Request: fold
Amino acid sequence: MVVKKNIPNIIFIAPAVILVVIFVYIFSGWNVWTSLTDWRIIGRMGKFIGVQNYIELFTNDDTFRMCFLNTIKLMAIFIGLTIPLGIICAIFLDLGVKGKGIFRTIYLIPLSFSFVASATMWSWMFMPDKGSINTLLRMLNLHFLTQPWITSTRQAIICVAIVYIWQFSGFATLIYYAGISSVDPNIIDAVKVDGATTFQKYSRVVIPLQKPATLTVLLILLMYSLRAFDLVWVLTGGGPAFSSEVLATYMYRVTFNQNLFAYGASISFVMFILSFIIIIIPVLIGTLKNRV
Amino acid sequence: MTRNALIYLVLIALAFFYIFPVYTLLNTSLKTDEDIKYGPVTPTHSIYFGAYIQAFNLIKKQLLNSSIITVFATIISSVLGSMSGYIFSKFRFKGDKVIFLVLVLGFYIAPQSILIPLVIFMGKIGLFNTYYGLILTHVAYGMPITTLLFRNYYEGIPQELVDASLVDGCGTFKTYLKIFLPLSLPGFAVVGIFQFTNIWNEFLFGLTLTRGVTYQPVTVAVANLKGTTVAAWNIVCAGATITTIPVVLIYIFLLKMIIKGLLMGSVKG
Reply:
C-alpha cells in the first residue's frame, strides 16, 4: 500500500532529482577527481597525481593568491555598500511620498540587465578620456575628481564592485522594503505614541527587526560575488595586469585558454569549498534551526 | 512641506545613480558615427537608428538562438519544477525533507565548480554546440529554484483540497492535472518570468558550450561586439540595448510578478 502510493510521487520528482544529482553532485565529484590528475590535453585523461595541483596553487601561484584576495575584496566592497544602500532606498520609499512606485521601478531596472549588457554600458561609463563619468565631471567643472577608473590597477576591482552595487542594490531594496512593510503596525503605533522621531523609529525599532531580510540579502550577494565572471570578463577582462582578476575568471582562463584542465578544476574546487563554507553551511544551519 | 522636498531630493539623487548609465547607453546608441565625437553625455543631435540596424544585422542569428534556447528551457524547467514542487509541498514520504534540501542546495553551488565536467559530458553525449545541450543545461540548473518557487507557491493551496481529491479516488496525477494545474497559472507566470530573464541573460554556459555563431546565445555575441575594435560605440550600445529590451519590458510591465518571484524565492527559502 505504502509502496504503491509512492510510485507517482517518485515519477513526479524523478526528473528534477535525476538532473540535479547528475549535473550538480556527480559533476562536482567528477571535478574533484579531475583536479587530482595532470590532465591537460582534450581527449586524453590525465594521470592521477594526488594533491599536486593544490600544492602548486597554494605555494607557488602568485596569480591565484591575487585572485583570491581580489574575490574577497570584491565581496567586501560590494556587500559592505549594497546593504546600507538597500536599507536607505527602502526607508526613503517607505516614507510614502507620492510617486514612490515610479522610484521603486527605477531602482529595480538594473536587475533586468544581463551582466554582459551592464558591463558593456559601464565600460563606456568608465573610459578615462571619453567615458560618461569623466565627461560629466568635466562638464560640471570638477576636473579634479576625474579618475583613471578601469585603466588603473588600483581602481579596476573597485569599478567592478560599483557595477555590482548598481546591479544588485535594487534587489536589496526590494527585500528590505518588503521586510519594513511587514513590521507589525501595532509596534509602529506604539513607537509613535511614545513620541519617537522618524529617525528613531527606523534606527531603534524598524531596522533592528530586519535581521531575516539581511540574512537573505547577504546570502544572495555572497553567492553572486563568489561566482562573479561575466561582469569582470566583459568589463575589465581581469586587467590591467590581473588587478581585477577573480577566481572565476582565472579558472576560466586557465582551463579554456591555456587548456590546463586539471589545474582549472582545482581552482573550481576551491570555489566549491568557499561556497560550501560561506553559503551552504549557513543555509543548513538556518534550515535546521527553523525546524527545531 | 520641506520634509517631503528633502525626501524627493534623496529619491531623485538615488534614481540618478540608477538611470544615468542607462541614459548614456541609450543616448550613445542613437548617435551617428559623427555625433559620437561629442561624447556620451551630450544629448544626441538626431534620433538615428542606423546603429540599431547595423547591430541587429550583426547579432540577429544569436537573437534567434537565445529565443529558442530561452523559450524551451523556460517551459520545460517550469513544468518539471511545478511537478516536483507539488509533491514536496503536499505529500510526505520517507526522506522527503532531505531530498528537497539536497535539491535546493544545488542552487547555491557556483557553476564554475561543475563547468569542466559539464563541457566534457556534453561533448561525450554529442550535445556540445547544440540547442539541446544548452536547453538541457539550463533546465538542469533551473530545477532547484523552480522546485523551490513552486513548493512555496503551492504552500498557499490548502492541504484539504488534496486530501479530498485523493479520497474521491483521484490519484496523485489526476489531482495535479485537475486541481493544481488550473490553479497554477499565477505560479507559472512568476516562475516563467524568473527563468526567462535568468536564461536570456546567462553568459558562462553559452560561452563554454558553443563554438562559432551557429548556436551562440546573444549575450556572447554582445560581449564579442564589445571586445572587438571593429564595431563603433554606437553599435555596441545599440546591441546591448536590443538584448536588454525584452527583459526591461517584462520588468516594467510585470513588476508585480517579478517582485513576487524574488520574494518567494528568497524570503521563504
Q: What stands out?
A: Chain A has a mean pLDDT of 89. Chain A is about 75% helix and 0% strand. The domain at 57-291 of chain A is CATH 1.10.3720.10 (MetI-like fold). Residues 2-35 of chain A form the longest helix (34 residues).
